[in-house]
Amino acid sequence: MGHPAPIPPPPGTAPAAAPLRDRLTIPVLASGGILMAVMQTVVVPLLPDLPRLTGASAAAVSWTVTATLLAGAVLTPVLGRAGDMYGKRRVLTGALALMTVGSVLCALSSDIGVLIAARALQGAAASVVPLSISILRDELPPERRGSAVALMSSTVGIGAALGLPLAALVVQYADWHTMFWLTSALGALGVAATWWAVKESPVREPGRFDTLGALGLAAGLVSLLLGVSQGGTWGWGSPRVLGLFAATVVVLVLWWWQQLRAERPLVDLRLVTRPRVGLSHVAALLTGFAFYANSLVTAQLVQAPKATGYGLGLSIVATGLCLLPGGVTMLLFSPLSARISASRGPRITLALGAAVIACGYALRIADSRDLWMIILGATVVATGTTLAYSALPTLILRAVPAGQTASANGVNVLMRTIGQATSSAAVAAVLVHHSSPLGGIPVPTLHGYLLAFAMAGAVALAACAAALTIPGDAPSGGTRRAREAAPGARDEALEGA
Q1: Could you count the other beta carbons within 10 Å of the beta carbon of residue 116?
Q2: Distance between CA atoms of 282 and 149, rounded to whole angstroms?
Q3: Secondary structure class of 147 (helix, strand, coil)
Q4: What is the pTM (predicted TM-score) of this model?
Q5: Residue 438 — φ and ψ, nearest 5°?
Q6: Which of 292, 290, 299, 288 is nearest to 456 (CA)?
Q7: Is the confidence at residue 214, as pLDDT, over 60?
Q8: Closest CA to 199 of 405, 17, 25, 20
Q9: Cα-based distances in Å from 132 to 29, 89, 157, 233, 493
Q10: Is the N or C terminus of the chain more exposed, i.e. has fewer CB atoms within 10 Å?
Q11: CA-CA distance, 396 to 133, in Å (whole number)?
């Protein structure tokens, strides 16, 4: 006996609304990305006071930032690969849980050792954005995917812009532990919301996890980023820094050799070396460098004493509010980025974003004395960052098989992290070299800030050039939509390429 044919709805009847859980998937994932960025930023206003609050040295306190950077760089590609193998929602929830546990430990202790360990746990949250983007690729139809991925990419800048003034307000008007209790509560809410609202992706790439590859990558990245982040403190020519860089080269060369021979490598290097993927990673590194200088230099510039002749002497709260328009702009411009990518391709969006970043730095060079021009220039850089960061994951999603999207986006985020760490070291070196004494304390000169802007602008132009050399943008019109509607066929073709 045959099954009865489904009865179509009457003409003019609206389609049934999606379940509440499905409608909340994008907001929940986006809020997780924002929370991750807030968690990374909240410690910044505390840094000047942490030596007094913890009884530790300034060098020890700086590790509350360095530990998060190192842990995030190591865990992002590792957790991305784990998500592809064992389930993206499961790994995403675990990363948010580690972040929350780290925040609780920060709220409970004033011991610098505990704080550094807790901040390292929070570094696991760096994998939230690539895992979320991979989930969106698996779960959303093509017509909704572009705008959702663009929004997810923008959450990094939005959270950073929100986190600084929020943390500054808490530090100024409440006990500093209150800030971590607040982020702990938000983290617990994020874990529960993710487990409830986000479906587990059915797309998996089974196999044995490459533990040796993960350890090798961790050792190489720790050596590299530790040398870059501590070079200014230890001395770029010191035996420790030179030894770290030498160890980086040796370890990563051996890791590359091992990955090419592994049956199920942590990072598919044959995929990475394809121009469409590899050049996207290069553009991510350069864009991360260019973007990060904006936040670093703006915060120092507006807080510089008025006696310097250029500084505005603003408080940390006022400084955070100066960066807030950039965060709002990133939220507003993410849909525009998706539309440009849909019509012109993500390669053009990435190049346009890098060019806009360079224009923003040109404004900073033209006038860095008036507050409104400083805010305008910083906001233009944030706008360009939105366009570029929103296009990068779309490029990766179109270039790799569905079973490797989380790990590939994890590598892309790793390249941004390396770019940001390098930017921090380069900006610090420029400002230290161009400083003059004020009240017996060396203070960067305006010329030093302008050189930092010029350096970041030049790197942004290099990112634009790298974007324009990325080959093989997806076809436009109906052909592109047809290929997006059949990711499995595209993935099989990629795997056979």
Answers
A1: 19
A2: 20
A3: helix
A4: 0.82
A5: -135, 110
A6: 290
A7: yes
A8: 25
A9: 6, 8, 16, 36, 25
A10: N
A11: 10
